[in-house]
Design brief:
The protein is an alpha+beta fold. The strands form two sheets. Strands 1, 2, 3 and 4 form a four-stranded antiparallel sheet that branches. Strands 5-6 form a two-stranded antiparallel sheet. The radius of gyration is 17 Å and the shape is globular. It has four helices and six strands; from the N terminus they run H-H-E-E-E-E-H-H-E-E. Helix 1 packs antiparallel against helix 2 and helix 3 packs antiparallel against helix 4.
C-alpha cells in the first residue's frame, strides 16, 4: 500500500500542477487516467458503482469546482478559471490494493475567503491526523476536525467523511467529520 500511495501522490501532484486557467476538467481526467496506466496501475473510480447504486462513475478523477462539494464528474465544459477552488479526488488499484487521495487547490494566485477556507481545512486535517493513533477512538478524530471547522465559522456536510481503503474502494472504518469527543465511537 505504501508503494501504491507513493504512485498515487505523484500522479495527483502532476494533475494538480496541470490545473491551470483554461484547462478543462475532462483534460485533467484524461491526464490522470494516462498517468495511472503508464505506472502499471488501474483507475479505481472509473466505472465504480457504490453500494446501493446502479450508476457507475464515468471518470477516473473527481473534479469539484467551487460550490460542488465532492465527486464532481469532469467534462469538457468545466473550464478552470483564475480564482477557482478545485477539489481533485483520485483513486487507483496497485497490486491488488485500492488507494484514494484528494487535494484541494486554488487556480492562480488569489486571495480572500478561499485562502481562509483552505487554511482552516488544512488545520482541521492536521488536527484529525494528530488524533488518529492506536488506542484512540474514531470520535476523537471526528471531534478534532469538527472543532477546527466550526471554530472558524464554517459548517460541515453531515453525510460525508473519511473511510478506509485496502481490498475495496471504500472500507471500514467510516470516519464522520462530526464527533462527540474523545470517548465517542470507542
Amino acid at each position: 500500500m505504501r508503494e501504491g500511495g507513493k504512485h498515487l501522490a505523484t500522479i495527483l501532484n502532476q494533475v494538480a500542477l496541470a490545473s491551470l486557467p483554461g484547462v478543462s476538467a475532462k483534460a485533467l481526467d484524461t491526464l490522470a487516467f494516462n498517468l495511472i496506466k503508464k505506472g502499471g496501475d488501474e483507475p479505481s473510480f472509473l466505472n465504480y458503482a457504490p453500494p446501493r447504486s446502479k450508476v457507475k462513475f464515468p471518470a477516473s478523477l473527481c473534479v469539484s469546482i467551487n460550490d460542488t462539494i465532492v465527486h464532481g464528474i469532469p467534462n469538457d465544459e468545466m473550464i478552470l478559471k483564475i480564482g477557482d477552488t478545485v477539489g481533485l479526488d483520485l483513486g487507483l488499484k496497485h497490486r491488488g490494493f485500492f488507494l484514494d487521495m484528494a487535494v484541494t487547490i486554488k487556480v492562480g494566485a488569489t486571495f480572500g475567503e478561499s485562502d481562509r477556507l483552505l487554511e482552516t481545512t488544512k488545520k482541521a486535517l492536521e488536527a484529525g491526523i494528530k488524533m488518529a493513533r492506536a488506542g484512540k477512538p474514531l470520535g476523537a478524530v471526528s471531534n478534532a476536525v469538527e472543532r477546527i471547522i466550526r471554530g472558524a465559522g464554517y459548517g460541515l456536510v453531515r453525510d460525508l467523511g473519511g473511510h478506509g481503503v485496502g481490498y475495496k474502494v471504500h472500507e471500514e472504518p467510516e470516519v464522520p467529520f462530526l464527533g462527540k469527543g474523545p470517548g465517542f465511537w470507542a
